[in-house]
Design goal:
Strand 3, helix 2 and strand 4 form a beta-alpha-beta unit. The protein has a single domain, classed as STAS domain (Transcription Regulator spoIIAA, 2-Layer Sandwich). It has about 120 residues and is α/β, with parallel strands linked by helices. The protein contains 4 helices and 5 strands, in the order E-E-H-E-H-E-H-E-H. Helix 1 runs parallel beside helix 2.
């Protein structure tokens, strides 16, 4: 399940459930592309509701980051469970993503990086 909430120029995309493949990964890509079409380039992906993440889910997150950064924006990740954080750490992707403990900190981080 994907939910969207706007905080000024920042859009929070909240994911819930298992992020293992279709249709979840396609829904995330479609959401990101539609936001880019609206010129929304500051995104926070809230993973607090994600129980399991595999390589397809990671691929969708990476594709989102690449697409948004090409447009001059960025994507932050927030509220990672221990399991999700472990997957990101094992795959050495901690350097690719800006990761925050809370959605609020992730949203506020855009004031620092893009002001």
């Amino acid at each position: 399940m994907i939910k969207e909430k706007r905080h000024g120029d920042v859009v929070v995309i909240s994911l819930k459930g298992n992020f293992l493949g279709e249709p979840e990964t396609s829904k995330l890509r479609e959401k990101v592309y539609s936001l880019l079409e609206e010129n929304r380039k500051h995104l926070v992906i809230d993973l607090g509701g994600v129980k399991v993440l595999n390589s397809m889910g990671l691929g969708a997150l990476l594709a989102s980051v690449v697409s948004v950064r090409k447009k001059g924006g960025d994507v932050c990740l927030a509220r990672l469970s221990e399991r999700v954080e472990a997957v990101i750490a094992i795959t050495h992707l901690m350097k690719v993503f800006r990761i925050y403990e809370t959605v609020e900190r992730a949203v506020k981080s855009f004031d620092v990086f893009f002001s």
